[in-house]
Amino acid sequence: MSSSAVDTLGRRLAAVREALAALPATLSSTERRELLIQLGEVTDALTGSRLSLLHDEDRLADPPGAAVDWLHHTNTVSRRAARAMVRLAADLADRYPLIGEALRAGAVSEAQTRAIVSGLAKSGVEFTVAELATAQRELIRYAAEFDPDELHLLAVRYGEVLAPDRADEIEASRLAREAKLARAGRSFVLVPDHHGSMRIRGQLPIADGELLLAQLDALTPSANAYLEERERPGMAARRADALVRLTGIVAATGSLPARGGDRPQVIVTLSLETLLSGLGRAGALASGESLAAGDARRLACDAHIIPVTLDGGSRPLDVGASRRLFSASVRTALALRDQGCAFPGCTAPPAACDAHHIVPWWAGGASVLGNAVLLCPYHHRVVEPDLARAPGFQWQVHLDPVDGMPWFTPPRQIDPRRRPRRHHRHRLRGPVPIPAEETLPRGDPPVWDDLPFSSEWTVGTTV
């Protein structure tokens, strides 16, 4: 392309950018959708031309591989992405030219192009030149009907179309190869983001992943489990809660192998002042990360407490005996009484729950059945008292003086009348309740609705 041709194309592209910048904000839905389709086709065509030019640059580069360095140094893509682009450009030019032509013509999208190329590469079939050309033409035709994921699957299995008598053999060979690669590529990385969270990334072989997914599906809270605190988490957040439940169940079994002479444990170090008052510095994890005092107190509800005397330089001088706040017998009684998370609407099983002190143990509350309730980790955070907020703006718990079952009093911002409510599983244990004349929040005891609310109902509430 001559210098004048490059200049002409540059002016036309600049005119397109100016026209897009001048688009009115009053486009109709039909106009916007039509424009989106046209822009998508043009964008894909430009991507095809860009990859073609990139291949020429890479082919003629001196030294070889300089195109990757140049592209990375533009700071628009990572080095990994630059290598992937150069590799795709070479594949389209040398092995899949018909796919490259279709991309430049806007007949397939960039995503569809990558799906077809990767699928054919994973098919495990040694195509002849004629067979590969046929495969490309057929898959381009399918692009009008199938999305990238579906096109990828068609490309992977295209060898079965060419040799139907060998379909089973080809499929078995492909699956064996994928299983080997999946095994080699398995990974799990869990690292702190230094902003109060841990980031997870990795991959599992399909069979192992399906097993994990089945466990998470069984433990995923229903959307109704979050209604009381007026939260609407998506499936990803609910799956995260399911993973926390799963770890709690495994930890509660006590069957994990010992490491360093003790069972796996999370060690949190914090001062007595922080533990009792919520003031002072935050707790410190063994990894060096900090933990909010409220989270540390919540963990301490159902933990082994080990008193340690430190000197002025925070060096241990003396270590006391480990003491678990709730005994095994109390936890067993809680499981029998509450049958899982007692928070209204929650379906977490007992093994996934913590034992929570209604009157906090750090405020003198006893570790007995009459001062305890089972809560899943999520609702434990919801109910755990926040010393920086007034009690009327927090969830509070008390046990019924007649049947000993837990009632939950919502904060004023959820129910200005603060009418206590309990889990339906507990309400259905006794006689069928008489329907109320008005619609009450989920879990409210109808017989209490006509009574004037008094703070005296919240006997034994958290502080």
UniProtKB/TrEMBL annotation:
Record region (Disordered): 408-445
Gene3D superfamilies hit by this protein: 1.10.30.50
Domain HNH nuclease: 329-381
Basic residues: bias regions: 418-429
SMART domains recorded: HNHc (SM00507)
Superkingdom in the source lineage: Bacteria
Family annotation (InterPro entries): DUF222, HNH_nuc
Classification via Pfam families: DUF222
Name of the featured protein: DUF222 domain-containing protein
Organism of derivation: Tessaracoccus defluvii
